[in-house]
Amino acid sequence: xxxxxxxxxxxxxxxxxxxxxxxxxxxxxxxxxxxxxxxxxxxxxxxxxxxxxxxxxxxxxxxxxx
Amino acid sequence: xxxxxxxxxxxxxxxxxxxxxxxxxxxxxxxxxxxxxxxxxxxxxxxxxxxxxxxxxxxxxxxxxxxxxxxxxxxxxxxxxxxxxxxxxxxxxxxxxxxxxxxxxxxxxxxxxxxxxxxxxxxxxxxxxxxxxxxxxxxxxxxxxxxxxxxxxxxxxxxxxxxxxxxxxxxxxxxxxx
Lengths: 66, 178
Description:
Radius of gyration of chain A: 17 Å
Oligomer: heterodimer
Order of helices and strands of chain B: HEHEHEHEEHEEHH
Helix content of chain A: 55-70%
Mean pLDDT of chain B: 90
Strand order of the largest sheet of chain B: 3-4-5-2-1-7-6
Order of helices and strands of chain A: HHH
Shape of chain A: flat
CATH architecture of the domain at 6-129 in chain B: 2-Layer Sandwich
Shape of chain B: globular
Distance between the termini of chain B: 35 Å
Largest sheet of chain B: 7 strands, mixed
Largest interface: A-B, 28 and 32 residues
Number of strands of chain B: 7
Mean pLDDT of chain A: 78
Structural class of chain B: alpha/beta
CATH topology of the domain at 6-129 in chain B: Beta Polymerase, domain 2
Strand content of chain B: 15-25%
Number of domains of chain A: 1
Number of helices of chain A: 3
Low-confidence stretches of chain A: none
Distance between the termini of chain A: 34 Å
């Protein structure tokens, strides 16, 4: 049987959950991402966001009109 | 499109001695929530002296209303003294100056609900605390606000766990915490 992408991702997440590689809240929030953010200082969080935002803008400019 | 310089916007306000509280998505990020945002939202003091300082720094930032940027309409003292929201575009990106938020809460009312955070060497700014950010989004209940609420609530839970050593083995106080 051919699985859709979503089914495959869900299956991988479920497998990873069983072996303790992920940690999602019941409402689907990635708790590992929150813990990583909390491990940074506020200044580091700001710097990370600024870099990411500028990367996103640069990619959008490369793909302008699409 | 100009590069977004979120920190530079905040530093300019800080260096000019502006009394303000950072709110919105950037406040959520500085509080540790993994959300994305492209603008800077601040509630400013509407005290006359603060408005004078703000007008000067807005000039330096080349701030105009972003509804029709080509007309280059600049905010004036009367705009800044109002309880409304000014959506501006500056040389560093979008900046929203908010006279009040939530239930008509202005700078003075929000101070007890803010924390001071260091954003770079020698630059400490007031940021709305996570509890109040959540309470306001719950109260406003718009679709955009509801979408981000689960992340904010889980971030608050994780922060509280970190502030109570012993709940999670190996978890100490947060680096750079207030």
